[in-house]
Amino acid sequence: MATSTTCVRPGLGADATERAILHRVDRAVRVGERELRYQLERKDQHPLAQADELLDVLVQLEAEGLVESEWTFRLTARGRERLAGLADSTTAARCAS
What we know:
Blueprint: H1 14-26, H2 33-42, H3 53-63, H4 77-96
């Protein structure tokens, strides 16, 4: 796992990286990865915004007890199609009985 010093631009050390991430997480009750990346990129011009290492830094911050994570899920277009198909088959089965 990468440390919080990976992918930081010159003059932007681990403390500044940690501060930027903690600041953005603190400003929201809950923030998803996409929104965090957007905030870091648009508001802070932070190099981790589009880097894979952002997740490593977040895991490290969680291990230190500074943030906590939870999974969120959303349906994809394919998932919505399947759900519609399942709903249709359930309705057809009820009508047949």
